[in-house]
Amino acid sequence: MDNVFQVAINTLNHAGKIGRIDKRVMEILQAPKRIQEFRIPLKLENGGFKVFPAYRVHYCDALGPCRNGTRIRPNLTLDEIKALGLFMTIKHCAAAIPAGGAKGGIQADPAELTTNDMERLVRAFVRSLSPKGPWADVPGADIGTGEQAMAWMLDEYEQITGTHCPAAINDKPAILGGSLGGEEATGRGVFITLKAAAEDMGLALSKSTAVVQGFGQVGSALAGLLHAAGARIVAVSDVFGGVRNTQGIDITALKTHVAETGKVVGFPGTDPVTNADLFGLNCDIIVPAAVQSVIHKGNAADVKAKLIVEGANGPVTTEADEILAAKGVAIVPDVVANSGGATVCHFERTQGLSDQYWDLKTVNAMLEKRILAAYRDAAETARAHEGSTLRIGTWISALKKIEKAMQLRGWV
162's torsion region: left (phi>0), alpha (psi -120 to 50) or beta? Predict the structure, then answer.
């Protein structure tokens, strides 16, 4: 599998060259500003003992305090966290959010931990960060974490500081100061950008077929919205495997099946399909909504879709990008497509700082306005720079904002 940080750096440097970004700015962005790397010793509830590697990366804070993302998964690496920190930096710029990019994570398998183990691990992570609050670094959720983990994080932060500060942690439950619409925000944002891109291509969703890789929080929300729009979803997969039905899958029933069994495999009325074969299926739209580097030089040539919308971070490698561009496949990049979560996290922090909370209709309307503006800006920037794709257009637009901020601060 391609190194996701190198993929991110390749994109950064390509965009910087086409956009003629200041070389000193580019030099700064070759690596994170700050890396916290530590180990968490934990006595397990079953009597065992384990030490968990953990990280927090602040990639760039030229535009504001670092924010977002805490990932817990077995094969987590520092390079993965660095890449995600860079993606968050660009994502915040693309969505016009005054924030820097950050990401954190713990190398652990949540499936092997009890609820008590998870709580103590998450609280220990917060203590190790020596958290400084909403004007410095705001952690949020990612793969392997969710509202409960964020509630523990917030409580630990408030126990440490002796203050109540809902803006210190993102993606928490609404009753603790979280934003309505937060859980569905990333999937909704993917759908909004997918719909806009399809319209630009003259592709009617009600007559389109789609494949969704990943059926977690992002993929399931996106699939539900896509299904409701009349698209025929012909295949869905998760970490255990996939299912397909060329006549279309009932997403509402599939969600019930997953809630009961924990996986999409075995859903009645479907045939099995492997994740390896998924991207070669006949369809109009593919949404990779799981992990990075799943479309690569080994399978990109098999893609038959006209449109790829990146629900995951970094799902298409640099070499695959080139192959797909040559095939005429349009790609809505992760830093625009899945920025809905980061955008609603921005709304969440704003609400927490003001102690004024918005209804769901307001949140969704503001999300759509902001993410469509990001998509249109990326498209306009791409058109203005010869040889640019939508991905490169997004990065150029973001880098110009970072360049201006660094120049004004006197960094370069």
Answer: left
Neighbours of 298 (CB within 10 A): 13
Question: Given this structure, which CATH class describes domain 180-352+361-412?
Answer: alpha beta
33-176 and 180-352+361-412 agree in CATH topology: yes
pLDDT at 1 (0 to 100): 53
Output the six-digit token pair for 296.
């690569």
Residues 71 and 142: beta-carbon distance below 8 Å = yes
Q: How far apart are CA 228 and CA 220, in angstroms?
A: 12
Is 103 marked active-site?
A: yes
Tell me which amino acid residue 98 is: P
| Contact (Cβ atoms closer than 8 angstroms) between residue 149 and residue 217 | no
Cβ–Cβ under 8 Å, residues 93 and 334: no
Residue of 33, 82, 91, 103 marked active site: 103
pLDDT digits (tens, 9 = 90+) for 37-92: 999 999 999 999 999 999 999 999 999 999 989 999 999 999 999 999 999 999 99
Q: Would you say domain 33-176 falls under CATH 3.40.50.10860?
A: yes
Residue ranges per structural domain of the chain: 33-176, 180-352+361-412
Model-wide pTM > 0.85: yes
The string of pLDDT tens digits covering residues 3-48 is 889 989 999 999 999 999 999 999 999 999 999 999 999 999 999 9
